[in-house]
Design brief:
Structural class of chain A: mainly alpha
Largest interface: A-B, 63 and 63 residues
Helix content of chain A: 55-70%
Order of helices and strands of chain A: HHHHEEHHH
Distance between the termini of chain A: 13 Å
Oligomer: homodimer
Amino acid sequence: MTKLASPASAELAASLRGAVMKLSRRLRSQRVDESLGLSPLLALATIELREPLSPSALAQFEQLRPSSLTRVIATLEERGFIERQRNPDDGRQTVLTTTQAGRDIVRAERERRQEWLAHMIDSLTEEERAQLSAVLPVLRRLGSAE
Amino acid sequence: MTKLASPASAELAASLRGAVMKLSRRLRSQRVDESLGLSPLLALATIELREPLSPSALAQFEQLRPSSLTRVIATLEERGFIERQRNPDDGRQTVLTTTQAGRDIVRAERERRQEWLAHMIDSLTEEERAQLSAVLPVLRRLGSAE
DNA sequence: TATTGTTATACTCTATAACTATA
DNA sequence: TATAGTTATAGAGTATAACAATA
């Protein structure tokens, strides 16, 4: 807490912050399925990846408060993309699983190659794609650090 | 529009999307000055960089609708960080400039080395910082593409 | 008519606090 | 008491549509 970051890191931080905020705005507006928000889509992808899991486990993976996910989960259930079941062993817990429709939409989204971002990435040079690929773990770490 | 992106790009896009969204959430919550939102702060930084400029020019740089900036600009003015002046040559236009207080806060924010993200970056390896640095122009391009 | 900017309104995302049900 | 989840509420950020003022 007390140690200072280097000037170089501070500079890098400022640039990265701007770039990430702009890109995230783009991603929100440029998503493929207009009827489903980006947040439910990301949550659905996580459920598909880790199912079965509880809402609080999902919140942990998504790094959100459970209460922030209640609506998201309700939306996904109403749309028929996931199912909620009581855990018989512990009545407090709910277990989330994807439906076929949910898996389909996750796959469709994943494979949607004409997707805006994929196109953008496709127009990069080979070297730039390699750079992007290389830096992804770093971005993930920054995003998931405590 | 019709050409398909490669599978590799689609995959990269999905990963990047997740990473960027998470990091942007982190940035929103982890910012330094709690009293000023991130969006006004970013706008202020742009004004400081390009002043004098009009609200619509700012909207273009920030890639937002002018109406989305009206509140942001009002906030910055109320706080005494910027000034609004009528353009004498064209009564429709307003010209934005920073005040000393505005420049101070931009500089303070920039130099705030104990900032969360700078610290995170500081804890990366030298190689990871180099990777991050190298990929920044690419991220910026992705975020600012039409 | 076209441009600049604002207002009104609504939607998405996320948070905190208080609550219910279960353990 | 402690945990899982929900509800109520609030605030930030952004968009669209309709408007006023100016050119």
